[in-house]
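Record copied across here:
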Amino acid sequence: MKKVFLLIIPLLLLSSCDRFEHEPFKSAVLEGDMLSFFSALQSASADSLDGVMEWYSSGYLQDKQNKADIEHQYANYYLEYGNDLQLLGNLEDYWKSGRVLWELQGTLPDRSTFLIAQQEDYLHKEGDHYFFIGNQVSPPELDPSKPVILVQYFTATTCGNCPAASTKLSEMHDEYGEQMVILEYVADSDPGSVYFPESIYYGGAQPSAIFQGQYRVVGAGAANLQEYEARYQLAVSEELQFRFTSLDINVSGNTIIADVSWETTGILTGDDLMLRSVVLEEDPDMHYIFSPAVYFENRVIAGMETNFEESITNTELTLEVSIDLPPKFSVVVWLQNHPETWTGDTGQVYNVIKKVVGE
């Protein structure tokens, strides 16, 4: 079945969602198309996702994810659960704006129906049918005139309150894009033995998030999650004093050589300036034990630090990883005033750079 999409979609359609979502709306066509989509899910296999992907427009965009990214996600479910996985869907709610909430479910020969993910998406009617278009939102590109904000997030797979904090940080990353780098330190999945020294340095609490080395938020209550936004805005409004200009990665076995360059744009204060770096496993197959639908976006698997020399503008950093390098990983480097004892006033992170390697 060939579908041609003309995606000239007024942004007003998505920006006026609140008004439409207060209006009662029922559509037999939309519900019928969702049932057809769920039937395509049920007929899909690890070797054939064409029937599913026909329901996604060629111009699909959801928080910077395009159609190819979505197909990759579906393929990963078969890698995670095995080729016997059968996908199912359940429509939860929808609105006149095109916003739709649905559950992606799975079943296995030895396992009854289980939740894989709760999905929020947008539909657009083209001809006689609806198709997924996403929210047509892409996070902003990096603004080099502002500091990149580092968030060191301390958690564990067994942490009961952490999924709410993790979800909030993920939403913020979707909104702020490359201007925000999140490091997930996972206490019970820490092959580089990085979690405990770093967590203890900042006070040893779960969940806790340290913004730019200075602003600490502990807990995952509503007030705590609101404070995440306030801390980010406070940090990103700081005057830029330092900027990384490049990061090149070379790999030999489990050794990573990071060649990093920078320029100083202001005054660097502090007596304990350090270049610090970690290796992240991106998209690990890990979720919270008590919230299986909330997955980790990364985990820290190695780290190192060295004294910062203001007289030079580039250096090489060597990171040794104790496990086999995952197919997709990243290297993050930041400049921080890092005294032996932390206080918010003395732990400033000046800037951050990140580079992803692999698929």
Q: What stands out?
A: Confidence is low (pLDDT under 50) at residues 1-22. The longest helix spans residues 28-43. The CA atoms of residues 5 and 127 lie 9 Å apart. The chain has two domains: 11-132, 149-358.
